[in-house]
Prior knowledge:
By secondary structure, the chain is α+β, with helices and mostly antiparallel strands. Helices cover about 30% and strands about 35% of the residues. It has a six-stranded antiparallel sheet with strand order 1-2-4-5-6-3. β5 and β6 form a beta hairpin. The chain starts with a helix and ends with a strand.
Amino acid sequence: MSIGEMLAATVPMVRTLNLEYLETTPERAVLSLPDQGDFHNHIGGPHAGAMFTLAESASGAIVLAAFGDQLSRAVPLAVSAEIAYKKVALGPVKATATLGRPIADVVAELDEGKRPEFPVAVAITREDGAVTGEMTVVWTLRPNN
Length: 145
């Protein structure tokens, strides 16, 4: 089972919004939010909350892809998130997430007994490629007791 299939099966919000996992690797995660009237805002595009969830879900997918081998000793947790809506989004949108720190550096901090934090940058784009939003989610790997 892929990370996307596992998240779709276990995270109710992913199923609610019908998010699609297009790519999930330690280097990049790409998710899409189909154009759905039930989740439109007052101007006919995806609601800000739906785009936030799309971007946060992309960040979680890359975290699991990058640090899934650490789950026996640490729990990934989102610490904070900041989003900026840049342009009007209409139609389907995609979120592309990338890690802001090398995996090896984060794992080295975990090996030292620290609770590493690392940013994940997410770009939300329309079908024409225009960036409609940018999000940064700061994640941590909380060591198990």
